[in-house]
Design brief:
Length: 269
Amino acid sequence: MTRAPLHVVFTPSGAGCLRHALAIAGRADQVISAFDSLSFGPINPPDLPLRSKWVEEELGWTGWHDIAPETDAFWREALSPGRRKVAWLSRRSAMEYAGFLEWLWRMDDAPCDVVDLSEVKVSHGPERDPPQPSTLALSLGIIPTNVICRDKLWDLAEPLHPAARQRYRVQWQQLRSENAPLRVIESGELVSAPISFFDKRLLSCVTNDWQKVARVVAETLAAEMDDEVLQVGDIVLAARIDSLVESGRLEMQGKSALEMHDCLVRLPQ
């Protein structure tokens, strides 16, 4: 009896959406997800203790090592032999793109299928009032479960062409050698970036009036989505606000921007 496919997903939210959609469709496929975002921190090697130390020292966030059991389990399943594997990603999501490249690097020459959502447009259907226009699927994790199921997005899976595999491997080798603090999407490609990459956009969302850090972070994330990419998470942005406060480019009320709902921020008066 042929085993059901193993779907390899690079965000927990994406895995949850896909898992629910497959259950609705009556499919017994297994879904696993990565918990570590390789869009930031050291990736050469992507050693979790090393990365946890970097997150604590650079971002001020403790406890990143708590995802170790889930991360170890993910890699054991994701690289297990003798089973059809289907990787899901959008090259518009830095977390998905980076996770996919590391997985493909570890897969070596093992065969795999890929669902590439980068140019896929999804519509919410006539049940929405007023009807919404089709939008790009920036990430599996933000596609509604009913849309995944209705459009049977798993049918988009295609074997990865050897030329594409080689191109991806060369790309990740370059990124690993650069080992930059961040990896971001530029012109459809994943590239290295300095830790200050998002500072300008963060500053553009701050005013002369006090506002919650959570609002500034949310506006920055929304601006990135307006560019049709998902670049970064809230932890990195909050940590950069702390850095901007420390350098005198922002003023803050509160202990740390990581406490986003309890801290206020404004431009220097």
